[in-house]
Please model this.
Amino acid sequence: MIRTGEYIKDIFTMAVGTAVQARGWVKTRRDSKGVIFIQLNDGSCFKDLQAVVEQGAIPEETMRQIGTGACLKISGELVASLGAGQSVELKVRDILIYGPADPTTYPLQPKRHSMEFLREIAHLRPRSNTFGAVFRVRNAVCYAIHKFFQERGFLYVHTPIITASDAEGAGAMFGVTTLDLMNLPRTENGGINFAEDFFGRPSYLTVSGQLEGEIFASAFTNIYTFGPTFRAENSNTPRHLAEFWMIEPEMSFCDLDDNRRVAEEFLKYIIAHVVDTCLPDLEFFNKWVDDTVLETITHVAESDFQHVTYTEAIEVLLKADKSWEFPVAWGIDMQSEHERYLTEVVFKRPVVVTDYPKEIKAFYMRLNDDGKTVRAMDVLAPRIGEIIGGSQREERHDVLLEKIRAQHLPEEAYWWYLDLRKYGSAPHAGFGLGLERMVMYLTGMKNIRDVIPFPRTPGSAEF
Ligand code: ATP
Ligand code: MN
Model:
């Protein structure tokens, strides 16, 4: 029986003797005495299918055009493999060349390339071992995210990407305009007349879907957003992108303790799913990228996250026998070095820090009775630092209004957000997980640019 259109991962499960057609791209070609070995990969799994071309099986003219990078359909019969590392290989009967590739100029050579170089060939890097594994893991993470929330009755909501309020205060924003930058309409006092702009006012790319998410949580109880998020922070760090993907659940009738538990269960669920579906990819990362990947993952799945308050965390940092680049004192916004010290050195597992000083957190976080701290939480993970940021939201109208005024925010812009506190306000909480930070955590990849298909960072938007 001839089968068509199989994925290579399915071919590996078929019995010896099955006739198959495999399609994919050549990873390597090796010529040996009387036989040629072709490693074929279609992205469906880590392992390449080995195709064996015996002398005379395929015309010379065809074989000449087959090198690394070529796209082929190979027909043949599955035979037991003599080589180590695979159970079956493909004994070749026929090869169709969809697209040849000149192996002497093909940029993705079968050798170790630097991550920097691979970023320059982002149109080809998905075909490499490393990026094949990265994007399969990323895909599995996304599936697990939807599965987790859907199984728990959360409504998936699409919050807007273009927003007219620079309200969230989560970071610097990209402007969106159709005004002619060479010839800006002016107001009487020389400012820009945004009344003439597309939306009739300044507008931006969203930094978070949370505020709109709260609207939906006030109708559907539990919701989540999962979409692109933009921050114009000019920080060239290995943990920040200008365009990234964020998952933001928002839950009614939920306080900070519930929020913390959901976050922990959520992260463990994603990990379990990825271990379940992408083990060969994880093993690759463990071998070639970071030899602590598998250990960390199993450890996290088995241990409870550590919970400390911000005040306790600062005490721990003050006692640390260590010199800091950024000095420690109650009230500071913890830097990556502090976060990583807590999770990597002190507690050696993910840490949830709660109850931060109100001055360093957003206006919408619920004020504690001490009047000094708010019901914020950050989840810190080894190697990454902050992976989740969240809070219980301020549901009391007057307290919220007072905070908006104290922070000199434009009260009018928040009319609908305040309305939610006037009509059927409920205690509620939520958090944001950066998808790319999660993928970094699972793969051990060191730079966030290498866990998103086409990274957007200061000065770089090729592809
Ligand atoms: P950080 O302190 O690391 O810059 P943040 O406090 O600005 O993050 P939040 O506003 O709490 O981040 O956003 C929620 C989550 O989104 C973060 O925990 C992180 O996982 C992710 N995140 C935030 N900014 C970025 C970015 N520029 N690139 C990638 N992920 C990000
Ligand atoms: Mn944060």
